[in-house]
Specification:
The complex is a heterodimer of chains A (about 375) and B (about 375). Chain A has about 375 residues and is an alpha/beta fold. Chain A contains 19 helices and twelve strands. Chain A has two domains: about 5-190, Rossmann fold (3-Layer(aba) Sandwich), CATH 3.40.50.720; about 195-365, N-(1-d-carboxylethyl)-l-norvaline Dehydrogenase, domain 2 (Orthogonal Bundle). Chain A has helices at about 10-20, 35-45, 65-70, 85-90, 110-120, 165-175, 185-190, 195-205, 205-215, 225-245, 255-260, 265-270, 275-280, 295-300, 300-315, 320-330, 335-340, 345, 355-364; strands at about 5, 25-30, 45-50, 55, 60, 75-80, 100-105, 130-135, 140-145, 145-155, 155-160, 180. Chain B contains 16 helices and twelve strands. The chains are: A alpha/beta (about 375), B alpha/beta (about 375).
């Protein structure tokens, strides 16, 4: 496979477009935000900064329209915030063809389910596996116009909906992102949304600090104090209870964080969330958000811990701390995230019991 | 009774020192008593019996050197000849003082818990009865402590705020008029509340302290409280949480026939005379001159969570269950606080069950607070 389609215009999409080009792929890039594409055209490509230095990477095709980007694509990487998945699902639906696979990178909690629900509602007849990763394939940030810095190339977890096509899909995925782990089904990747687990408590417990100083502190190092880390640990435990009920055992946050290359061996051995974040080199200097409408709440709550809470409810697992965070987040941002987020209806799984849920994610 | 009632102040912390000093400077006879296990609180003034009261801002009271009449760990000595007994201790200390006072109360004394926190007067009265007290005393509570301030050294106390219009109620409610007649000779600005449900539900510490601290937990823990709690910490989003708890509190009040003022209204009533102003809660709290130097707690193991939740928010939650009023925000704060400090705050609560009223209906509870138990 030589051509890869990248849909998106933010940090991750820039990183992937440039990085995959350097790896030898022909990248067709499209974003619903046309200014982003104009900038890349004007500047002759994307500037990639990493350990190897800084270089301008011309992109094979900066597409004018979505159908052009999807034409003859084998793998369609959708690298956007979860909030935008629906728009891309709507946009792609008429053009997806058998033989293509879609990868939501990442899927948040329920991305593949929600995307597939939209394709079904739009009567897409072709059998398109919708895959997702549990986190973005990069730790990266845009540092200027069409300029992106990659700090870490993350080994992600991967799963396909339906799960029975996992082998085939993972093989394709590994051609562009080697390393990483294939999981049984998208429930496992969705519940491995460690970003949501890590982000929501810090936002609520530092809401005043964020608003008053406009985020003038280091989010992970200073903002995740021992007490805040206890809340992260508790919601992680509630998440693990849901995994257990589904029938598999999940890594704890600290284990995952270490395996993803985000913290030290010492932290891993300590098992302490607080230590894991204190000793997280890639995150040491990440500044706190300037305000509370940041994706750490506006994405990680409705498309992260909300679907987790709903899964818990459906399966009889109590999630009091997760529920408390959702309620307070909804209050401070004046949005009922229980309603605006990925409800069982939007995921196409309402009313299912455990057996039905497993059957659906395995077989589609 | 002298025109200026004799005062016994029970307690040895911030509030007790300020209370004792202020009332002595105003010409009352004042004794102060701390329980033996906390004797170190009053060690500094045992010999000199003097507290220096310093004033910050414009609370409208005078400072000076107050030479108390009695400083002791012996409740009999402190209570002897007192007309008014002011219990100025954290909520979890109230029961202990009821136990030590029970044998030494005198007929006609008026005991006022300042503040009561939810159920303070009820618990105090129950303990007196259980300990066989036969004296005719009245037990009442204030909705909050009248002063805002702290103790800075073993012998020095600071006051920055003085609340006007503080509500007082006795348990049973039928004793309130008698309490007021006496208490108005001590504090001319207090007002009668309908009953101790009203004073309990009007304690707005319950509504502001935990939400503001939870939303600034990282900041407080990391910097050891190096920011102004209200001026910096009460941002618009933080105020939204406090307001939501406030709305739950007001809904609960309605079910008991109480029309409770909002936190905004209470803040302006208490501190308008010192310059508090604003049209919304965030504005009032973040600019109130009384709070100009109020730094945040240096640790989360602080009464804003350890006291205000078990003795304020959890009772609200239990009243919610009794009345069928949902209190999701209050409940969420309790849950998050418990996780933050790794203490099950619900298990420590003095809620309706803890007061022996867990099985009462709304109607019966209303009757009991007005007329007392068993009538």
């Amino acid at each position: 496979m030589r051509t890869v389609t990248v849909l998106g215009g933010g940090n991750g999409a820039h990183a992937a477009a440039a990085d995959l080009t350097l790896k030898g792929f022909s990248v067709k890039l499209f974003s619903l935000s046309s200014q982003v594409l104009d900038l890349i055209r004007q500047l002759g490509g994307i500037t990639l900064i990493d350990d190897c230095g800084e270089r301008l990477v011309p992109i094979y095709r900066v597409c004018e329209q979505l159908p052009e980007a999807l034409e003859e694509a084998e793998i369609v990487l959708i690298i956007v915030p979860a909030l935008a998945h629906a728009a891309y699902a709507d946009g792609c639906a008429p053009y997806l063809k058998a033989g293509q696979i879609v990868v939501l990178n990442p899927g948040s909690t329920g991305g593949a389910l929600a995307f597939r629900k939209i394709l079904r509602d739009k009567r897409v007849s072709a059998d398109i596996p919708v895959c997702e990763t549990n986190t973005l394939a990069y730790v990266c940030r845009l540092t200027g116009s069409a300029k992106v810095k990659i700090t870490v190339r993350t080994k992600t977890q991967f799963a396909s909906l339906p799960g029975k096509q996992a082998n085939m899909c993972f093989k394709v995925f590994q051609e562009i992102f080697p390393g990483g782990t294939a999981r049984r089904n998208v429930l496992e990747t969705s519940l491995a949304n460690f970003n949501a687990v890590m982000h929501a408590p810090g936002m609520i417990m530092n809401a005043g600090w964020i608003e008053f100083t406009k985020g003038n502190f280091s989010y992970y190092c200073e903002g995740t104090t021992p007490a805040v880390a206890k809340v992260i640990d508790e919601i992680d435990k509630e998440r693990i209870s849901i995994c257990k009920r589904i029938g598999y055992s999940s890594d704890r946050f600290v284990e995952h964080f270490y395996k993803a290359g985000s913290t030290s061996e010492n932290a891993f051995k300590s098992g302490s969330v607080y230590t894991a974040l204190q000793e997280s080199e890639p995150n040491r200097f990440i500044r706190a958000p300037e305000n509370l409408s940041h994706r750490f709440l506006s994405e990680d709550v409705p498309y992260g811990i909300v679907p987790m809470a709903y899964l818990g409810k459906m399966l009889g697992v109590r999630t009091p701390t997760i529920n408390a965070l959702i309620d307070i987040a909804s209050l401070i941002n004046q949005t009922d995230y229980w309603q605006t987020g990925w409800t069982p209806e939007r995921l196409g799984i309402q009313g299912m019991n455990l057996e039905q849920l497993i059957s659906y994610v395995e077989n589609g | 009774m002298a025109t200026k009632p004799n005062i016994a102040v029970l307690g040895g912390g911030n509030g007790a020192f300020i209370t004792a000093a202020d009332l002595k400077l105003r010409g009352h006879r004042v004794s102060i008593c701390e329980v033996p296990e906390f004797e170190n609180n009053i060690e500094g003034i045992l010999k000199s019996k003097s507290i220096e009261l310093q004033i910050v801002g414009n609370p409208g009271i005078h400072g000076g050197l107050a030479k108390l009449d009695v400083v002791t760990t012996d409740p009999k000595e402190a209570l002897s000849g007192a007309d008014v007994v002011l219990v100025v201790v954290p909520a979890f200390g109230q029961k202990r003082f009821a136990e030590v006072c029970a044998p030494h109360l005198e007929d006609g004394q008026v005991v006022v818990l300042t503040p009561g926190n939810f159920g303070g007067a009820i618990e105090f009265a129950r303990v007196l009865r259980a300990k066989g007290n036969k004296r005719e005393v009245k037990v009442a509570e204030m909705e909050c402590m009248i002063y805002s301030g702290f103790k800075s050294e073993p012998t020095v106390a600071w006051v920055s705020g003085y609340k006007k219009g503080l509500r007082v109620a006795a348990y049973p409610g039928s004793d309130t008029p008698g309490v007021m007649r006496t208490l108005l000779n001590v504090y001319a600005d207090v007002r009668a509340a309908k009953n101790v449900l009203e004073t309990g539900l009007r304690n707005i510490n319950t509504v502001v302290h935990a939400p503001i601290l939870i939303h600034n937990a990282g900041w407080a823990e990391k910097t050891k409280g190096d920011f102004l709690f209200y001026w910096d910490g009460c941002t618009p989003a933080v105020a939204r949480t406090a307001e939501a708890v406030d709305r739950e509190r007001i809904s609960l009040g309605k079910r008991f026939g109480l029309t409770l003022d909002s936190m905004l209204e209470v803040s302006l009533e208490w501190y308008g005379h010192e310059g508090a102003k604003g049209t919304n809660l965030q504005e009032v709290l973040s600019t109130n001159p009384v709070y100009a130097k109020d730094y945040a707690p240096p640790t989360l193991q602080h009464r804003f969570l350890l006291e205000d939740i078990p003795y304020g928010m959890v009772p609200m939650e239990s009243l919610g269950r009794l009345t069928g009023i949902c209190t999701p925000v209050t409940s969420a704060i309790i849950t998050l606080a418990s996780e933050l400090i790794q203490i099950d705050l619900r298990s420590r609560a003095r809620d309706l069950n803890g007061l022996g009223m867990g099985r009462l209906s709304v109607q019966t509870l209303k009757k009991v607070v007005d007329r007392g138990p068993g009538r």
